[in-house]
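Researcher: Next sequence.
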Amino acid sequence: MRLALFVAGLFAVWLVVHTTGIIDPDAVRNWIESTGPLAPIVYVPVSGVLGAMFVPGPVLAGVSGYLFGPVVGTIVTLASAIFSAILASIGGRLAGREGAVRVLGDRRTAWLDHQIEQRGLWAVAGQRLIPGMPDAPANYSFGALGVPVWQMAAGTAIGSAPRAFVYTALGAVIHNPSPWLGVAAAVVWIAMAILGLEGVRRAWKRRHEVPAASTPSDSAEPRS
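Model: Next structure:
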């Protein structure tokens, strides 16, 4: 019941944000600008909270690039992504872990816990590289499945860095047109997409191989 209510609540937040326009990026940008020299520091938690509320990451990164330029903006965007990932994963862990165990069962949960222990950081990093996959639902899901906070932070830092540069650079180009910056963003985005899709292919292949190898685990001898 708690998991169902939590999912329903997340869906309600997503629906409100995406249909009512209650959060206006221009209003956020104007308010951040009014903070003066503290604007980059202020924007990190503001953007992180908005990201956890399903405001699209490219929009937030574009605002960061528009306000702070490609260099500082990328740093701010990446810090915001890490903050948002930690915030959402903690929410998922508190609200969804018990429900996830009940849905999956103890044996599947134990297997997933083992996979997360072995590959949790790279699962987070790889998800960030997949084109078009939003971060907020993944962050809540990772938290519900027990990915440690440090892996959420480190995986986000690794996987979100290319995306942070791409969308921040595009926002910076709007403010200060630069064809070379636009080309660099496009090249990084293409490379990111290729890596992300290759990661999906390998994960899908491992999805079939690992369970087959793990089936006889009940009779396996303990590892030394």
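Model: The chain has a mean pLDDT of 77. The radius of gyration is 19 Å.
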